[in-house]
Structure formats: structure tokens, C-alpha cells
What does this fold into?
Amino acid sequence: MSQEDNYVEFVTPLHKRGSRDYIGRVTEHDKAKCSEIAKKYGAEYWDGNREYGYGGYSYDGRWSVVAEGLAAKYNLTPESNVLDIGCGKGFLLFEIQKLIPGISISGLDLSTYAIENAKPEVKSQIKHGHAKELPFNDSEFDLVISNTTFHNLKIMDLFSALREVERVKKANANSWICVESFRNEKERANLLYWQLTCESFYSVEEWKWIYNHIGYKGDFEFIFFE
It folds into this structure.
């Protein structure tokens, strides 16, 4: 199977709904200071002013379509066991659980604030930790997902995290990773202007090389800032 066969889109339609003032992102505020605050992944990042991150991240049901896509693509059932790395407040996990009652879900996030303010229905199933060293057993999950998290890892932690994904998946199980990337100079500039927390700033070609080099065998998606 070629890498092209591993490319799927679940989040891209949601991403394209938004509009972004790329130039304003770097001219209206001290971008370096905003990034410093954002990388703490605290209250300012999740629920503070827009220049620090989400500008308020509350449940609105938007992730239901992503849950439906994942369930259909990976044939999820009540017997499935799913891990979401970098799950934030657990909104996607909640949608998966609501869609498939009885399914086993687990989440992991570095932000204690996100976990403390997670969706109550899934909060108890979210652990605090880093993607580079997952607190889960070998071959534990039927599906491992990560939505817009792995680009926030430095290269050494990224390599470790990808190996961890392969470790915690069951034999022949599935995985899906979505990261920010670029295909041309315009998208490269827009990503540079817009991002606050990105550490692994790579083109599509480079991401595919990394996946192949590490031996990541799952699916992937890229978010572009057009």
C-alpha cells in the first residue's frame, strides 16, 4: 500500500469553514509573547483571548461528523478500544462514545487545564501525560487517533511518539494522525503567521518521509492554511 492510500480527510471540511487574518496574527499582538503563553496550554490557550489560542473552546457538537467518519472508516463497534492522543477537553471522544454506546475510549493530554475542564461524560477516561511515552500497554488499542497534536512535538519527541503509536496498537490495528503542514510557499507563510505552538514545521513531503522513516503504518491527514 502506498502512502497516498493512507491519506484520509476527516477534519479538513471543518477546517475550511473558518476564516483567518494571517497578517493580523503577527501585527496586532506580540506574536512571540503569545506563543510563550500558548505553549503553557493553560486557561489562556483554551479559554483566553484569541491571540493566545482558541479564544474559548466549548462544546458545540462540531466533532460529531469526525466521529461518524472515523466510525465508518474503521468499522468501530461497542467492542472496539480507541485512544485519542492530545484529546484536549475530550469532545471528539465524547462524540465517539455517544455514537457507539459501550465502546471503550481513552484519552491523553499534556494540559491539566484541559483535563480539569473536559466533557464530564469522558473526563474520567482522560489521563495526563506526554505522547512521547504513552501510559498504556503494548497492543492495547483497535484504533489510535491524534488530531492536530503531533506537529506540536519537537523532532526527538515526535519520533518517540510515532513509535509509541505503533507500540500501543493491536496487531493489524488502525491509526490516524492529523497535523498542520504546507504544500507551497503561500501555505508555508500562512502557517508560520498563524501557528502558536507548532514545533515540527514540515512540508507534506517531509512528513511522509518521517512516517516512512519511523515505520508508522497508519493513516494521516494534513491541515493546510490556504
